[in-house]
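Known limitations

Files may contain more than one protein. Parsers should not assume a single record per file. Below, a two-record file is shown to illustrate correct handling: read the sequence, read the token line, then continue until end of file.
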Amino acid sequence: MLKRKIFSLMFICFICIISTLLSISICNPCLANATRSMSTSLTRFMVRDEYRCVYQTICCMYLTVPQDMTTTMIVNYQYNGPSLISSTVIVSANPFYIDGELLIADGAVYYYNSKCFVVHQIKEDNRYQCWSDITGLTPGTTYFYASIVTASDFQRNVSTHHNYKFRTASTNDSFTFVNGVGRQWNEPAISLADLATATEPLFAMIGGDIIMNDGNGNCFLDWDYWFAMWHKHMTTPLGYTIPLLTSIGEREAGTFGAPREWDSFYLHYFPHQIGLQDINPQHRPTHHAHSINNLNILALDTNVHTSISDQVDFIKSQLSTKTTKHIVLYDLPMAMPHGSHNSIEWLTSNQMKEQWLPLMTDARMVFENHESPSDYQQINKTFYFGTGVGDTALIVDTKDYCVKFLRNREIHPKIICTTP
């Protein structure tokens, strides 16, 4: 009788152990349709991803384009480690060096306090997302920058290992920018990135669907990998970090018309306006405008979190200045390619044609993404460019607003000039 009770108890314990292991092995799955690699909490614990943010380090350093790139910049980064007390971005017009608590610099150094918050979606790390508004800059100037974090581990300071570098836009010189690089990091895409960075672009635009994991919070390693690849392949030959100007796509949230809560990372990772510190990142605006000299760029939301109709007045007000050249960036094309049968896509596309298309006559160029063909068309005086299938990137020179196509690992001979 006693042996039977002991055996029953051992069997129950065995079942409990097996059940626990099974629940752990399938806990927090990253099972998005196009994730870099499917995983669970257990597999992420057992197999360390080489691109994962290392404990007690600063990682994922990148820039986002603010409203005015001539005098401001937004520096973004993450910290993985003990409870964060404070964080600062250091900026100087001269290179500087951080050695523990000692900062060695030649010339003036400026300190900007960062706003940081816990990335609760990343359940397996103590991860913080930080950003700093860098203001009061001089147009057309090179700046070096680094970040420092003070954490609760005996108030230990953690800093970036080296200076990063950016440049502000000039108030009168022309510049180049790129569109369509970075939506994936396979071999052809890396070749496109190498060609694009060789032109020393001032910034890069990505019109949605940056990472196709449908906003799954368990797929945070996709973003770690993406930012590592961006830093590796989107730093120019002269060493400049290329700032990002993005618009949201449905793959950031899983579908069109999605609640903001479904968007685990995009809203948190891409501030595009100075002065958002008091706004919950989940409530950041998803349509915004950027002015560089006489160029005005509108980044729009094709009904992911903000409806088509709710952006009409914004578009009208932005495109009303006739002396300014206007460029528009968004995800979903107005003319859906043949074979797409998603009713939400078709409804959104038709709404765009009805409400946005008449307004675009005042835009010089429109960049569409999603599944748009890698080509262009002209409607009235406006040129519509597509880079949705991921095999093409575009280089735009604001000297004459001519567009070069990067395709099949080379600069295509086709050049489209949009001068009226």
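...continuing to the second record:
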Amino acid sequence: MTPKEPPTRSDYFRDQWRAWRVLGALQLNARRYWSGAMLLNIVVALYAPALLLSMFSFETPLENITNFSLSITSTATVLKFGLYVLQLGRVGDLEKVIARLDDRVEGAEQLRCHRQMAKKLRHLSNLFLYTYGFVLLNSEFSFLFRSGRSLPFPSWFPFDWKTSTVNYIGALGFQLVAIFGQILQNFVDDSFPPLALCLCAGHCQLLILRISSIGHAPSEQEANEAELVECIKDQKELYGLLELTRDVISWPMLIQFFVMALNIGATMFGLVFFADTMQDRMYFVSYLLALVLQTYPVCYYGSLLEDGFGHLHYAVFGSNWVSQSRSYRASMTILGERTKRHPRLLAGSLVPIHLSTFQGTCKAAYSFFTLIGNTRERAGPDPSQN
């Protein structure tokens, strides 16, 4: 890779744009509502009410827990997808800023760092892709190993599917399509934030390398001054990139943090106390893995980004500023003051996108887990297990 051949949008968000196209997000953003993808979105949107209408109405605790976790997940997924559809224009602006920053990559060290960043982004996107593919397989086909006529997940239908073959095929087809669409929505909703923050952190590290290397190689002072001015422009672009990223992911992440604590607690409870068959255990384990993947990477890169902006201030004094001109030192002072600002990403302007938040949600999940356990003990043993 050379500075004249920067990565394009398809390299960074290739899988995400493909998913948005399949889901009709671009048509929805352009207010073109009549398309084939709209049928998929309608099915996914109807799936959440079908789950909510049957909440806590099943005979076994396992079905009730599964229905509860799916109900809040489905509702959150529809809300997050709608928010991302509204912000797709900002995603395009974000990519333009990234392209301009990519054009500034030069030198062996920066190129090596840039290649590592691009490789990390591809691995991260593949991690989401393979994990959600595993969840899709478990969700779509685990019901085949059950005895009798059954559906992938317990939900409400306005007709009797247990005694009618036609109704059963209709209910099964509806759930299979809805599950596919919802997992695809989850993939794009959950993979975009960590990828965007990874890009921000990567370009912050590249700017640190760029600033700290000024003046160490033989060059004219005028060239060093010009490079410092360009770095000031890069710093402005980087802050703009962070602002765009915040605008896109802020509210979806607030929804995600709220849902995660309830979901992990309920899923762990079902796995520990009620999952008896191998198929149920595999489903709950894969579902739990997907829940952790929804929040841990984005919190990790949020923390990494915050640390990177903290080091940006020290990179200014890492350059060979002592032997430079007065004009250079004046510009360096301006850049030093600008880098004192340490932006912090907040979900919904309330919750930090940071590893401390992930730790807090895990604690909340454990509290919800114990709350369900205490309620179960007071209610007595489950009659279906006798």
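Parsers that stop after the first record will miss the second one. For reference, the second record is described as follows. The two ends are 65 Å apart (CA to CA).
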